[in-house]
Amino acid sequence: QQRLVRKMDPEISIMLQCPFREGITEDRVQVEISPKYNRRQLQHHEPKIEATWRERCRENPWLFNGAKFRIHSARLEKGKLTFRLGLTCYKDFIGTNWSSEAVHLQQKGWADCGDTQAYLAEPLGVGAMLHTADDDFVFLRRSLQVGEAPGLIDVPGGHPEPKAVAQGIPEGSISHEDLSENLVAEEVFSSILGEIRDEVNIPVTTLSRPILLGIARNNTSAGRPSAEFYVRCSLTSEQVKQCYQIGGPEAQESTNIVFIKRERVLELEENKEVWKELCPSAKGGVKLFSLAEGDPNGTRASPLSPPT
């Protein structure tokens, strides 16, 4: 394990790796949601968050300050994984994790709270290692117009949304009391299927239930966390490509679809030319999938592997 840590790409780190061979299924996940898991505020930094957001909105008028779940921690106990979640928003992410002062905020968080992430927004993302019927994995070339990692190769993904749980409540008014913990747990898993549908334009009926591989951190945005899932698709890569070319609701987020065979995915970290084209969220997904597929020597088989 120490050897793997030393080899880890500095752009990513692993917050949680699933310890079960079959992955973590939705029935093993629960949520605690509370204001105590929100970002701590620094009085002198709050005006900087507002100023940064105004500047970003001038540059990109389409930006929207949506509510997000903030992950404080994840605890695995007696076979159950508990997500400890608060609430945050995209504006706070831009003004903390994505801020030029992010390292200072992490140092301050460690000094004040013993937690480098205490003053950061930490919105929980989701990503999918999407596996086709003919043993390809699906990646997307990100548009040059997106705010993060433009032009790089990513996995399908996005965020679980508080508004999907607290339906009928204005997004800016959602509070912790409006959120059923059971429904939030469902949203964490179902959101990745919706993201695949909207970005790749394939029906949810062709997708398996997601299996959680773990949580990866994007160190280029001060450790922003993303839950990475494994999802099987009953379509072939050619069928997926045809769906993608028709275009879905979020087609503007990517410019091309990329297919990589499973055996090549397991070697991607050694392929420097391709690896450097992956954005950190994709690297996190690939890393967690590779860890799930076998031990450091590649000898432990996993049920994620295709049948032989």
TrEMBL record:
Keywords: Hydrolase, Magnesium, Metal-binding
Cofactor(s) needed by this chain: Mg(2+)
Highest rank taxon of the organism: Eukaryota
UniProt GO MF annotations: GDP-mannose hydrolase activity; metal ion binding
Domain Nudix hydrolase residue range list: 121-283
PANTHER family: URIDINE DIPHOSPHATE GLUCOSE PYROPHOSPHATASE, URIDINE DIPHOSPHATE GLUCOSE PYROPHOSPHATASE NUDT22
Protein name: Nudix hydrolase 22
The species this protein was found in: Latimeria chalumnae (Coelacanth)
Gene name for this UniProt entry: NUDT22
